[in-house]
Design a protein that fits this description.
By secondary structure, the protein is of the alpha/beta class. Helix content is 54%, strand content 9%. Among the domains are: 86 residues, 2-Layer Sandwich (Gyrase A, domain 2), CATH 3.30.1360.70; 86 residues, no CATH class; 183 residues, Isoleucyl-tRNA Synthetase, Domain 1 (Orthogonal Bundle), CATH 1.10.730.10. The longest helix is centred in the middle third of the chain and has 25 residues. The protein binds arginine (ARG).
């Protein structure tokens, strides 16, 4: 990647001038404005302080030591001591050639083996038998994108879906099943009937002074204690609910390496509590057991007064199991920001247990809002509603597809195209946000043909691809002609620079697990392509060599758009 190459050269130049030159290399950045060149190094100012010299003087010294002629025009010193770099076209062309020849990675270097880590990504985690929340869609979409990017970067990634399959919702279902189930509806549509029963019980337990709440807890406790009837019911209803959840995953093309729900850890919880008590990490409080933290009043409870274990107990057992089984370097939790305190406490407890050699990160995200600014709820508030949500996006996408009758798509092709556009719109709308912000769910916005949407990006991709059809171009053959590559117009150069920044964008997105850095990059790439396409005739280029060169730029643009979208979990379409 360009930035890495430039950094290396600066590090060489700084060696001998200052201690740990690496720490300054982050001050080399793409220029904000093309008139200051392509990259700017702002390291003379902080170095001047260190060396007690004038910044411009230091800048001159650095430039004198810098061996960079093969990559750049002679560096220019501007203002108080900025070093402006303008890359040579030959250097850019050389990198473009490498990217074109690089079938799978498009010029993005894979990390060194020594930097390769094992990540465990804990995402999605819906609560089985409870209405799946749009928040779980966020977790699913963000977790999937992070997984794909980490894998592409060269890491080893294990995904684990920490299903909520052991909570009080089962007490509700069990109680409801015995008291309110409509047999006939259950036979016809078990999921719908179970979620109706769940809602009935839920509502009743919310009412003040009712015995049902106690009965529900009793059923849950019986299940946890291994009561045969309750376990049998649990085993009966679980698959129905899982089928429904799996249907959603299938629509997103998502699968997990492991689906070890809360129930999996059930037998390990007693030991965890005993162990923490024995080691003095946890102590009794009002009959319950909790872990206390310095300077904090609230403990993390790990066993209730009545002996029941908690969400946090299961998470502790989960970490122990994962450490033993997968030996990860990092565990990432893609979970709603409202669980921040839970994860803070969880991670602190792990450190108290003396476990240091692991990264634990809560990748938090905000709430999905409806257009009135309130938290978004699907109509019926259940999984059926979530499938309905995806249906609606696909339906609207189909209208877009059908409105262009020049495409010549068969009916099944139309449907497949609409599926990709509809699902892609939902995924991209989520990923293009700063994940910590709330965002408004709007079909109109997410399916807009213009702006930072999947639809725009898919359209850009399809448009590039259509050139090859129109010009009857053999792409394989084209890719063997990289010797023709040249950058003649500013718009070509601007596009080329962006094409060569793909790796940088992924690195940025992975730094703090923020997929919106990748969407922002793809948006900028599509925009630069648009300018290029307006200003530089491709099929009608002035001569054959130029035509080939421009087609190569088009092709690389399409490939990077496609790969970038793929890393986000979005499919492309050939025609739209
Ligand atoms: N089931 C949880 C919820 O719906 C999410 C699980 C997240 N993962 C974890 N290890 N706690 O809130």
């Amino acid at each position: 990647m360009i930035l890495d190459i430039l950094k290396d050269r600066f590090i060489l130049a700084l060696t001998g001038l200052i201690d740990n030159p690496e720490s300054y290399s982050d001050l080399i950045r793409p220029s904000q404005d093309a008139k200051f060149g392509d990259f700017q190094a702002n390291l003379a100012m902080p170095l001047a302080k260190k060396l007690s010299k004038q910044p411009r003087e230091v800048a001159a010294e650095i430039v004198a030591r810098l061996k960079i002629d093969d990559l750049c025009q002679p560096p220019e010193i501007a203002g108080p001591g900025f070093i402006n770099l303008r890359l040579r076209n030959e250097f850019l062309v050389d990198l473009l050639r490498k990217a074109i020849d690089d079938e799978n990675r498009l010029g993005v270097t894979v990390i060194e083996p020594s930097k390769r880590k094992t990540y465990l990504v804990d995402y999605s985690g819906p609560n089985v038998a409870k209405p799946m929340h749009v928040g779980h869609v966020r977790s699913t979409v963000i977790g999937n994108a992070i997984t794909r990017m980490l894998q592409f970067w060269g890491h080893h990634v294990i995904t684990d879906n920490h299903l909520g399959d052991w909570g009080t919702q089962f007490g509700m279902i069990i109680y409801g099943y015995r008291n309110f189930l409509d047999r006939e509806s259950y036979q016809k549509n078990p999921v719908e009937e179970l979620s109706r029963v769940y809602r009935v019980v839920r509502q009743k337990t919310d009412e003040p002074d009712n015995e049902i709440a106690a009965a529900v807890l009793a059923e849950t406790a019986k299940l946890h204690a291994g009561n045969a009837d309750n376990l049998k019911l649990w085993n009966e209803v679980l698959p129905y609910s899982m089928d429904e959840i799996n249907r959603i995953y299938q629509r997103f093309h998502i699968s997990f390496d492991y689906t070890l729900g809360e129930s999996f850890y059930h037998n390990m919880l007693g030991n965890i509590v005993d162990d923490l008590l024995k080691r003095g990490i946890a102590r009794e409080t009002d009959g319950a057991v909790g872990v206390f933290f310095d300077g904090e009043e609230v403990p993390m409870l790990i066993r209730k007064k009545d002996g029941a274990f908690l969400y946090g107990t299961t998470d502790l057992a989960t970490i122990c199991y994962r450490m033993e089984t997968f030996k990860p370097d990092a565990i990432l939790y893609v979970v709603d920001f409202r669980q921040s305190l839970h994860f803070e406490h969880l991670f602190k407890t792990v450190r108290l247990m003396g476990i240091e050699n692991i990264e634990l990160t809560h990748i938090k995200f905000g709430t999905v809002l409806s257009e009135d600014g309130k938290p978004f709820k699907t109509r019926s508030g259940d999984t059926v509603g979530l499938n309905g949500l995806l249906n609606e996006a696909e339906k609207r996408a189909l209208e877009i597809v059908q409105s262009n009758d020049k495409l010549g798509l068969s009916q099944s092709e139309q449907l497949e195209t609409a599926r990709r556009i509809g699902i892609g719109a939902i995924v991209y709308a989520d990923l293009s946000q700063n994940r910590e912000s709330d965002y408004v769910f709007s079909y109109d916005k997410m399916l807009a043909m213009n702006g930072n949407t999947a639809t725009y990006m898919q359209y850009a991709f399809a448009r590039v691809r259509s050139i090859f059809v129109k010009g009857n171009i053999d792409i394989k053959e084209l890719r063997t002609k990289t010797e023709k590559l040249m950058l003649t117009e500013p718009a070509e150069r601007a596009l080329a620079l962006e094409l060569l920044r793909f790796g940088e964008a992924i690195e940025l997105a992975l730094r703090d697990y923020r997929p919106n850095f990748l969407t922002a990059y793809l948006f900028e790439l599509a925009n630069r392509y648009s300018v290029f396409f307006e200003q530089c005739p491709v099929l009608k280029a002035a001569n054959d060599d130029l035509k080939i060169s421009r087609l190569l730029l088009c092709d690389l643009t399409a490939r990077i758009l496609q790969k970038g979208l793929e890393l986000l979990g979005i499919e492309t379409v050939e025609k739209m």
